[in-house]
Amino acid sequence: MGAPIGRILTAMITPFAADGSVDHDEAVRLAEHLIAHGSEGLVVHGTTGEASTLTDDEKLALTEAVAGAVGDRVPVISGTGSNDTAHSAHLTAQAARLRGVAGFLSVTPYYNKPPIAGIEGHVKAMADAAGDLPIILYNIPQRVVLHLSPADLDRLSRIDQVIAVKQAVGDLDEARAIVEAGRLALYAGNDDLVLPFALLGGVGGICVASHVAGAEMLAVQAAADAGDEVEARRLDDALQSLYTALSVAVNPIPVKTATELIGFATGGLRLPLVAATDAEREVVRAELAARGLLG
């Protein structure tokens, strides 16, 4: 199965201005940088984009700014899923009207703990609201409690617009089952899963470290796609220390620190997230310096 929305996509941070508002100009500047450095697609206001503390108006304006600027060159995916079906469908319908939007990310409804029939109804409502645009499922049990099994994912794949899954689950048997079922494109939902999934037939990743190493991550996927496992492993080994550094605190604290250090006005984080501690910041700074990314 090919990569329907590109191979390496970056789940973008959301830059904030000095007054705490969303900085659209800086978001577009970052989007341009990411495209120039290996990202074949972008996801706005997902987990890394602090979706849980953005208003609907902020999400739509951010989607409009980024998709309007670069959506004619790369797929821009809008994270319109939530734990409220009516809300998710409404936001999806509004985002679907915006120029340049290529699809939607549907996180498993969190907190409510619905059965699979409820999740199916939720995704179907989003798909109906999306028109002819695709839905990418987001399976991230460590944040939402619920774990979508391969059987659950296969059931959800029967919804016409559902084309892919962002799988933030490290179980390789489950990843293999998704690939073998042949109904969903498998995207790594954690950076360190790009290579293991690629070797099983995964098509790419929706990534965080690609803010600072997008070209290198794309090279890992490309080598695996070409059947060069030795080269793919060599390239992936070189990224492990970066993945570790960007895990020194909960996402997106480290990557927002990293993007600030390489020259973007990220504007901090919204509570209840807080800035990196001095020790965490030093871990990120030292890794970027070792990679020659600090100018």
Task: Give the helices and strands, then pairings.
Elements: E1 8-11, H1 24-36, E2 41-44, H2 56-70, E3 76-78, H3 85-96, E4 101-107, H4 116-129, E5 135-139, H5 141-144, H6 150-156, E6 162-167, H7 172-181, E7 185-188, H8 194-198, E8 204-207, H9 210-225, H10 229-237, H11 240-245, H12 253-261, H13 278-290
Parallel strand pairs: 1-2, 1-8, 2-3, 3-4, 4-5, 5-6, 6-7, 7-8
Structure explained in plain terms:
It is a single chain. The longest helix has 16 residues, at 210-225. An eight-stranded parallel β-barrel has the order 1-2-3-4-5-6-7-8, surrounded by six helices. It is 45% helix and 13% strand. It is of the alpha/beta class and 295 residues long. The chain has one domain: Aldolase class I (TIM Barrel, Alpha-Beta Barrel). Strand 3, helix 3 and strand 4 (101-107) form a beta-alpha-beta unit. It has 13 helices and eight strands. The radius of gyration is 18 Å and the shape is globular.
Order of H and E elements: EHEHEHEHEHHEHEHEHHHHH
**Cα distance spanning the termini:** 39 Å
- Helix and strand content put the structural class at alpha/beta
Count of the domains: 1
The name of the CATH topology is TIM Barrel
As residue ranges, the low-confidence spans are none
What is the architecture at the second tier of CATH? Alpha-Beta Barrel
Helical coverage, percent range: 40-55%
CATH superfamily membership, which one? Aldolase class I
In the CATH scheme, the class would be Alpha Beta
Q: Please give the count of helices.
A: 13
Q: List how many beta strands DSSP finds.
A: 8
Describe the strand arrangement of the main beta sheet, using strand numbers: 1-2-3-4-5-6-7-8
Which shape, going by the Cα principal axes? globular
Radius of gyration: 18 Å
Strand content: 5-15%
Instruction: Summarize model confidence as the mean pLDDT.
Output: 97
**Biggest sheet statistics:** 8 strands, parallel, barrel
